[in-house]
Design brief:
By secondary structure, this protein is of the alpha/beta class. The chain has two domains: about 210 residues, Rossmann fold (3-Layer(aba) Sandwich); about 60 residues, Alpha-Beta Plaits, CATH 3.30.70. The chain is about 35% helix and about 25% strand. It has twelve helices and 13 strands. The strands form three sheets. The protein has a six-stranded mixed β-sheet with strand order 5-6-7-3-8-9, sandwiched between helices. Strand 6, helix 6 and strand 7 form a beta-alpha-beta unit. Helix 3 packs across helix 4 and helix 4 packs across helix 5. The N terminus and C terminus are likely disordered. The structure holds adenosine-5'-diphosphate. Adenosine-5'-diphosphate (ADP) binds next to strand 2 and helix 1.
Length: about 325
């Protein structure tokens, strides 16, 4: 899985400063500032419509910011000398000549940068498309198309990769493959910036997170910081006197839900505090269990007010 070429010693950083994009009245990206560091996978996370693709397009010089700026290793994308060799990109909407074979598509792209045939075969092998390299791209499944997109991104052996929802359309084996690939590319010192609306996927792939909602920055933290700060504790309480205890626990900042007659799920109070209230009211508890809220729940809570379209988190359960 390792790429054969040597990386330049360059430590490449992606930087956004006050990046803003308006489409008429709509503010798609609202004053975003962040840095993406080399050597790790950085996840760009947010519900659908949060502004991830627009941000990535601005990083790649495909959309002009209304305000602010974006740079890769200190330069805007359009001022890079050999972009394919510096930044590899996979965007959601790919335009590929469907009549061409995968190999010819890559050869045409390679020719624009003086990249040889051998590198084309290397990347075809790397993404597992060697067997179908002669087939027309028009007949490719979504997953095969994603693999070809990733092959194009890797063609110039770039030190920076910007990938928009790369696991879309991939089967579980493909998802595992891309996770391993991205981690190994990062371990080689590359800068990897990858978007997703799935917290569960990001928690397995990224070690740093930039979270956006409605175009604004919600969090910029390491995965462990995010887990620690966002994962609030809930307590499961089982008692025959659930309704009475529920009334006694009610207070500002406390939420109590119930899915079974004798079960309460409490957030906003510790198990010790709940135990004390129950003891004072002489309510016998059958169970009192603190539980860490899942990352998925934490992400949902964090971006709850920022969800624009439907319920993207339902897909997270797939
Ligand atoms: P994400 O990638 O997080 O799903 P997008 O960047 O695609 O979000 O979209 C952010 C917001 O900007 C959405 O409300 C979307 O409808 C809007 N938007 C994106 N591109 C355009 C465009 N070309 N014209 C008008 N609105 C757009």
């Amino acid at each position: 899985m390792r790429l054969p070429r040597k990386l330049p010693s360059l430590r490449c950083v992606i930087e956004a400063v006050g990046l803003t994009k308006r489409y008429g009245e709509k503010v798609a990206v609202d004053g975003l500032s962040f840095e993406v560091q080399p050597g790790i996978v950085t996840g760009f996370l947010g519900p659908n419509g949060a502004g991830k693709s627009t941000t990535m397009r601005m990083l790649l010089g495909l959309d002009r910011p209304t305000a602010g700026s974006a740079s890769i290793n200190g330069r805007p994308y359009e001022r890079l000398r050999a972009p394919l060799c510096e930044v590899g990109a996979l965007l959601e909407a790919r335009a590929i000549h469907t009549g061409r074979s995968a190999r010819n598509h890559l050869l045409a792209l390679a020719a624009t940068h003086g990249i040889g045939r051998r590198r084309v075969d290397e990347v075809l092998d790397l993404v597992g498309l060697t067997q179908v390299a002669g087939k027309r791209v028009g007949g490719f499944s979504l997953g095969m198309g994603q693999r070809l997109g990733i092959a194009s991104a890797l063609l110039g052996d770039p030190h920076t990769l910007i990938l928009d929802e790369p696991v879309n359309g991939l089967d579980p084996e493909g998802i595992l493959w891309i996770r391993t690939l991205l981690r190994s590319l990062a371990a080689e010192g590359r800068t990897i910036f990858v978007s997703s609306h799935l917290m569960s996927e990001m928690s397995l792939t990224a070690s740093h997170l930039i979270v956006v909602g409605q175009g604004r920055l919600i969090a910029d933290a390491s995965m462990s910081e995010f887990t620690a700060s966002a994962g609030r504790t809930v307590v499961r309480v089982r008692t025959d006197e659930a309704p009475r205890l529920r009334d006694l626990l009610a207070a500002d900042g406390v939420s109590v839900t119930s899915t079974e007659r004798d079960l309460l799920t409490v957030s906003g109070l510790s198990s010790a505090e709940i135990g004390k209230v129950a003891a004072e009211a002489r309510i016998a508890l059958v169970e009192l269990t603190p539980q860490q809220a899942s990352l998925e729940e934490a992400f949902m809570e964090l971006t709850r007010d920022a969800v624009e379209f439907g319920t993207p988190m339902e897909e997270a359960a797939l």
